[in-house]
Amino acid sequence: MAPRIKNDEQRRTLRVTLGVLASVGLMISAYLTWTHFVGVAPVCISGSGGCETVQSSSYATIFGVPVAVLGLVGYAVLLLSVTLRGEVGVYLGFLLALIGTLFSAYLTYLEVFVIGALCQWCLASAAVMVAALVCTTSGVWRLTKEH
Q1: What is the pLDDT of residues 38-66, one digit of tens each?
Q2: How many structural domains compose the chain?
């Protein structure tokens, strides 16, 4: 009976961790979405202006949709995946975290090699998404071990 309890605790810990990560990502994306629509520059910790440069670049929107809004939707669905029980939630979270990590890697590439500026908010979001991928990969790994 003890292994079942341990597995339940581990699943709960992974869900809570993923929920916290998704919430942090949601807040970052909400802030960047707000700055986009209000038309103000995001606060940049270093004062380098990199956040404003990135947010005002042509890469800040895709087909007229701000990248921050895509992040908002992605993190919201990631948060939703935490509430789903069973394999569906685990695999949905993994799929979202994988796509989000790949997209974040692409955006970071653009920041470094094309735009020539770094947005700390964007980098923080990318780090959150990578942590979410690690978390969801652990969940998928545990599922495959159980079957």
Answers
A1: 999 899 876 667 899 999 999 999 999 99
A2: 1
Task: Please give the structure tokens belonging to residue 4.
Answer: 């079942």
Query: Which pair of tokens denotes residue 84?
Result: 């789903």
| Spatial CB neighbours of 10, under 8 Å, sequence gap ≥ 6 | 142
Label residues 9-36 b or e (16+ Cβ within 10 Å = b).
eeeeebbebbbbbbebbbebbbbbbebb
Residue 30 CA to residue 9 CA, distance in Å, equals: 31
* Measured CA angle at 84 (ends 97, 95), to 5 deg: 20
**Gyration radius of the chain's alpha carbons:** 17
The tokens of 61 are what? 């929107």
pTM value?
Answer: 0.91
Q: Strand, coil or helix: what is 65?
A: strand
Q: What is the CATH number of the domain that holds 14?
A: 1.20.1440.130
Domain that includes residue 82, residue range: 2-146
Would you state the structure tokens that stand for residue 29, as one six-digit string?
A: 């994306």
| Cβ neighbours for 28, distance < 8 A, ≥ 6 positions apart | 71, 121, 124, 125, 128
